[in-house]
Amino acid sequence: MDSIDKFWERFQIAKPEFKNKQYIEAFYFDLTKESATHLLQLVLEGKKTATSSSLLVYKIENEKIPMPKDLSIVTDFDGKPFCVIETKSITILPFNKMTFDICKREGEDLCLETWVEKHTHFFTEDGKMTGYKFTKDMLIVFEDFEVIYKEI
C-alpha cells in the first residue's frame, strides 16, 4: 500500500510550486466503501468538484474550516491516495437553503430533492458518529475544489 507521505513527496516533485506547502488532511468521501469508491471516481473524472460538511464537525473536532488554496489528499476507503485537491472557495449556508445551482457541483445528483435525501441520511449518520444532531437549519460548509494532481 502506498503511504500518504510517499504520495505527497511525488506530488511535490511533480508540482514544485507546492514544495513548501502542507496538506490539511487526507480523507475519503462519505461513510461506506461503495460510496467512497463511487465519489472518488467522480472526482477523478472531473464530475465532482465540490463537497459539503457539517460546520459542527469542525467545532467538535477542533479543526479549521478549509480555506481557499488549502490542499487535501483524497484517498479510497482503505486510505490509498489518488489525488490532491485545492480548495477554491467556501460557502457556509443552512442545509435548508441549499439550491441545485450550488449542490450540482458535487456531481452526484440530478436534482435538489435527491441531494437533500442523500445528505439528510449522511448528516444524520455522521452526527451520530461525531456527536451532533442533524437539523434542517444546521450550517453546512460547502467546499468547491479543483484536482491539481492525480495518480491512477
Question: What does this entry look like structurally?
Answer:
It is globular, with a radius of gyration of 15 Å. The protein has 152 residues and is an alpha+beta fold. The protein starts with a helix and ends with a strand. It has one domain (4-150): Sulfate adenylyltransferase (Roll). It has helices spanning 4-14, 33-44, 55-60, 100-103, 112-130, and strands at 23-27, 50-54, 71-75, 81-94, 139-150. A hairpin with a 5-residue loop joins β3 and β4 (81-94). It has a five-stranded mixed β-sheet with strand order 1-3-4-5-2. The protein has five helices and five strands; from the N terminus they run αβαβαββααβ.
- Full CATH superfamily name: Sulfate adenylyltransferase
Low-confidence spans: pLDDT under 50, at least 5 residues?
A: none
Number of helices: 5
- The largest beta-sheet arranges its strands as 1-3-4-5-2
Order of helices and strands: HEHEHEEHHE
What is the strand tally?
5
Structural class per helix/strand content? alpha+beta
What portion of the residues fall into strands of 2 or more residues? 25-35%
Termini distance? 14 Å
CATH architecture: Roll
The radius of gyration is: 15 Å
The average pLDDT is 96
For the report, how would you describe the main beta sheet?
Answer: 5 strands, mixed
Number of domains: 1
Per-chain topology:
Elements: H1 4-14, E1 23-27, H2 33-44, E2 50-54, H3 55-60, E3 71-75, E4 81-94, H4 100-103, H5 112-130, E5 139-150
Parallel strand pairs: 1-3
Antiparallel strand pairs: 2-5, 3-4, 4-5
